[in-house]
Design brief:
This protein is of the alpha/beta class. The chain is built from 10 helices and 6 strands; from the N terminus they run βαααααβαβαβαβαβα. It has 2 domains: 136 residues, Rossmann fold, CATH 3.40.50; 66 residues, Orthogonal Bundle (DNA polymerase, domain 1), CATH 1.10.150. Pfam families: Hydrolase.
Length: 209
Amino acid sequence: MEAVIFDLDGVLIDSEQVWDEVRQSFAAAHGGVWTSTATRDMQGMSTPEWAAYLVSDVGVRLPAAEVSAGVIAEMEKAYAEHLPVIPGAVDAVRAVASRFPVAIASSAPAVLIRVFLEVTGLPVPVAVSSEECDAGKPSPDVYLLAASRLEVAPEDCYAVEDSTNGLKAALAAGMTVLAVPNPHFPPAGEVLEQVRVLGSISELPDAVV
């Protein structure tokens, strides 16, 4: 194996609940009605995809571009108040980066990925948002783009994920997938059966030796 590619939300920062709260609040303020499947449906979607979903499926009464701008602005405010870094994540990335080229392949907007890297100071030379791709997770596009920018074949990369759609994306990219299951939104059992499951992000450095 020649590289390690990390998801961001749910793997390095405990942000899935923040996203959920911000989207629900924004939707309620603009005429939307939250559905029982909305949270899981949007996990892994790129920014244009989830903004369109909030309009078409949740009923937000704004253009998709205004939806994405509004939600991202609220996320920036939330991160400015508190960036919910997962315990052990920064040390794990530093340990792995001392032995492998590393990257982030995330559905988060590029602006929020930059906030995370600025706050933590982590040595991550390649950070890709699915905003740059034709489709978000479970499409493999963001992982394939990250591997390309690292100049490493996808089959020679580890991918570290937490959600069903993220795990599907990394598997579709042909990577060796390590799962750190999200405790708030556990991934599907049939997907976990296809990957190696870790108890926490702190186990990662030993897992990739």
